[in-house]
Amino acid sequence: MISDFFYPQPGGVESHIYQLSTKLIDRGHRVIIITHAYSAPHPSRSGVRYLTNRLKVYHLPHWVVYRSTTFPTVFSSFPILRQIFIREQIQIVHGHASLSNLCHEGLLHARTMGLATVFTDHSLFGFSDAASIMANKLLKFSLSDVGHVICVSHTCKENTTLRASLNPLAVSVIPNAVVASNFRPLQPHEAKLLTQGGKGALLPPPPDPSQPVGPNDPITIIVISRLFYNKGTDLLISALPLLLRRHENLRFIIAGSGPKAIDLEQTLDSLPQQLVYTASGSPRVVLLGSIRHEEVRDVMVRGHLLLSTSLTEAFGTVLVEAASCGLMVVATRVGGVPEVLPGNMTIFVLPEVEDVVRGVTEAVGLLISKAVRRDKFHDLVKNMYSWSDIARRTERVYDLITGCPSAPDNIANYDEEWQHYGQMAHTQSQALIDRLKRYFGCGVWAGKLFVVVVVVDYLIYCVLELIYPREGIDVCKPWPVMGADDGTFGIEEVVLERFGTVRQKTRR
C-alpha cells in the first residue's frame, strides 16, 4: 500500500488503508505500507515503524508541501522504492488517493519493474477549472498502465472513468467500511465516565439512544470534519446562526481543524451572547479543534444528530461511523453520499443554507415525534459494512490482475455469469513498446511528454540494476513468532491460506 495519507494524520483514506491492510494480513497476505515522514503538528514518524498485526510502515523522508502531500519529483523516489520492493518481495503495489504524489510515483516505478498495480480513488473532481484539468491529466497518465482501479462508490466510478478515459470493466466499486465494535452506542456504564474531568465537563451530557427525546429536551448536533472549503465549512458557518435562532434547544459540538476555523470562530464571536450561551451560562457551540480518530466515538455518542455539509464527497466514512453510534444523519446530497445509508437513517439536503436549516428542522421533528429508532442503527450498520468483506472483494481484484485462483469464499460468492467479470480488461500486453503506445494516446502533447517520462524511468531502472544489483539487496526475514510449547522464538514460514488466518510453521 502506498499513499501520502496515513497515520498519525486522521482521515478516511488513512483509516481505509490501515483497516484493509490488517484484514488482508488476516487472510494470509504480507502487507507493508509506504508513506512519507511526519513531523509537527503531528507526532513524529520517520524510518520504519511497526503497527499491530505485523503491519510494517515505511516513512520516507520527503518534503511535504500542502495538506500532507509530498513535492512531486517523479524520479527521485525510484532508488528507495526499488530497494523496498525488492527487500519486501512485493508482487502488487496498491496506490491510494488521486492527489497523492507518492502514490503516482510508486505506480509508475512499479510498472517499470514489471509489478502488478492497483489504484483506489477516494475523491471526486470536476472537469472545468484549471486545477481539476491538471489533476485529471495526471490521473490519465497514472492509470493508463494500471492493472485495475477501485472506487469507493458508483458515483466515484463514473467520475473516475470519465476523468481517466477508462474501460468500465477495469473499474470495481468497493466501499469503505466501519469497525462496528469501535463505534457502538453509549453503554450504561460509560455515561458517568464521559462527564468526569477535562473536556467532558464542558460538553453536553451524552443522551441515551434507547430513550425518546422530549419536546423541551436539549438536542446535540455533532459536526466532525476538516474545516476546508470543499467540506462545506462556509455552508455550516452560514446555517449555524439561523439554526441557533430557530431552535433554542439545539447544542453543537464541532470537531476538526483547518483554514476555515478562524472564520467559524469569528462568526461565533459576532453573534449575541444570549444566542451562543444558555441561561445557565454553558456554551451552545463547543469547538474541540483537531481530535484523534480513537476519540471520534466518544464525541459522537454525546449527540443525537450528525450534520455533514460537504460540497463534494465520494463516500463519507464519518456517516457510517455516526449511524453505527446511533446518530441520525443530515447530509448534503452530493457525490456518493446517497449510496451510503438507507433513507430511514438519513435526511438529505441540498448544499444551500435554507435547505440545511430545513433538513435539521425535519430531523429534530422526527426525534421528538419518536418516528425513528436510533437504538436499532448499530445492528443494521454492522450487517451492512464489514472490513473482512472489503478485504475479500479487494483480494478478488488481486486475483484478476495476477491470474491467481480465487479463494474458496470468493468462488462461492460469484456464479458462472460473474466469475470472470472484468478479466478481459487485464489482457493488455506488458511489453515496453505496448506500454509506450498506451501512454502516447493520452494527448497530442501530453502523450509525447508521458512517453519521454516512461523511457527515462526505464533507463534509470536499468542503471539501478547495474549499480545496485538485486542479488546484493537483503531480503527481509519473515516475522518471528512464539514457539509451540517451550516459549522460544522461531522464524515464521508462512503458508498462505486464501481463506481464514495464516497457517504457520516454526523453524528454530
Automatic annotation (TrEMBL):
Membrane-crossing segments per the record: 445-468
Gene3D superfamilies, sorted: Glycogen Phosphorylase B (3.40.50.2000)
Superkingdom, natural source: Eukaryota
Listed pathway(s): Glycolipid biosynthesis; glycosylphosphatidylinositol-anchor biosynthesis
Domain PIGA GPI anchor biosynthesis: 42-129
Keywords of this entry: Glycosyltransferase, GPI-anchor biosynthesis, Membrane, Transferase, Transmembrane, Transmembrane helix
EC number(s) on file: 2.4.1.198
GO annotation terms (biological process): GPI anchor biosynthetic process
GO cellular component, one term: glycosylphosphatidylinositol-N-acetylglucosaminyltransferase (GPI-GnT) complex
InterPro entries: Glyco_trans_1, PIGA_GPI_anchor_biosynthesis
MF term (GO), any: phosphatidylinositol N-acetylglucosaminyltransferase activity
Function: Catalytic subunit in the complex catalyzing the transfer of N-acetylglucosamine from UDP-N-acetylglucosamine to phosphatidylinositol, the first step of GPI biosynthesis.
Domain Glycosyl transferase family, chain residue ranges per copy: 215-361
Organism: Baudoinia panamericana (strain UAMH 10762)
Protein name: Phosphatidylinositol N-acetylglucosaminyltransferase GPI3 subunit
